[in-house]
Design a protein that fits this description.
Shape: globular
Largest sheet: 3 strands, antiparallel
Helix content: 55-70%
Order of helices and strands: HHHHHEEEHH
Number of helices: 7
Radius of gyration: 19 Å
Oligomer: single chain
Distance between the termini: 34 Å
Number of strands: 3
Number of domains: 1
Strand order of the largest sheet: 1-2-3
Length: 173
């Protein structure tokens, strides 16, 4: 647990920054797990062995994974499982958070993630939060993550088994 000195001249700013960095790290960790949840769901529906699924799906960009999953769910007659996944993705604001440049007020009262896009034209967008707002954003993201994994019938044990089958954590593989 992080302990903060109580005699800092900018105690609130330090607390805000610490809370945001904690929640951002937790968000990124949970997002990575969500990508694995999608891979497991795809592997099951496509009847892929876990190692083959890890090899094939691990190299795909994120955007392809939900599209593949939705198509497989429709083909399997399990359309009701799509909505919890979409709800999580729509809430996450992933592109702004993962690809954005962080910016903050001097006192750390407000945080922004600045996202630049240059597809057909140059666009700049901002995802703005206070530390408390980002904390609530993360808590809702976590709730939606659990709902999506539950809808897809994927447990923590499933994630661990997939990781072992994909040889995660082994050197030289």
């Amino acid at each position: 647990m992080v302990t903060l000195p109580s005699d800092l001249p900018d105690q609130i700013g330090v607390e805000n920054r610490t809370q945001l960095l904690h929640d951002f790290g937790a968000f990124m960790t949970l997002w990575s797990e969500f990508e694995i949840v999608l891979e497991i769901a795809i592997a099951r529906l496509a009847e892929m062995k876990p190692l083959a699924a890890s090899i094939v799906l691990g190299g795909l960009s994120f955007g392809n994974k939900p599209s593949i999953l939705y198509s497989l769910l429709v083909e399997a007659g399990e359309q009701s499982k799509i909505e919890p996944v979409k709800a999580l993705i729509n809430h996450a604001r992933r592109n702004a958070l993962v690809h954005g440049t962080p910016a903050t007020e001097d006192d750390y009262s407000n945080f922004a993630f600045i996202k630049r896009d240059i597809k057909d034209r140059y666009r700049v967008s901002r995802a703005e939060f206070t530390a408390a707002q980002f904390h609530e954003h993360f808590l809702e993201f976590r709730r939606l993550h659990l709902a999506a994994a539950d809808a897809l019938n994927i447990s923590g044990d499933d994630i661990e088994d997939y990781a072992k089958a994909g040889r995660f954590g082994q050197q030289g593989t």
